[in-house]
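Sequence in, structure out. Go.
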Amino acid sequence: MANLSTEENVALDAFTGMKEMLHDFIGKLCEAVNRRSIEQNEEFILNAISCVTNILYYDTSQEPLFTDALRSKVFSSFKDFLLATQNEEIQIETVRVLSNLSRHKSIAANEFS
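Output:
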């Protein structure tokens, strides 16, 4: 949905109405990524990280969509892909996820220190 939206407010309004569903979806994506190896599932992992990156873009400190627990789960699930692969697309998407997460003070203080 984030990829389809050209208006930030349209996506934000849609995401706000679907907070619980998106929370569950992102949690399940993290669990799915955690069960797979990068060597055998590179495309799936790239797409999962990209999807979460695009959704997390709308999760700001001014308009929070998710809990810190979910943000920590995302951080834990994706952080190792920065160095675990030579795939530059996965590395770039991982940096984007970490950048989106770093906008939240509690995550930045607890996970990035």
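Check: Confidence is low (pLDDT under 50) at residues 1-6. The chain has one domain: 8-111.
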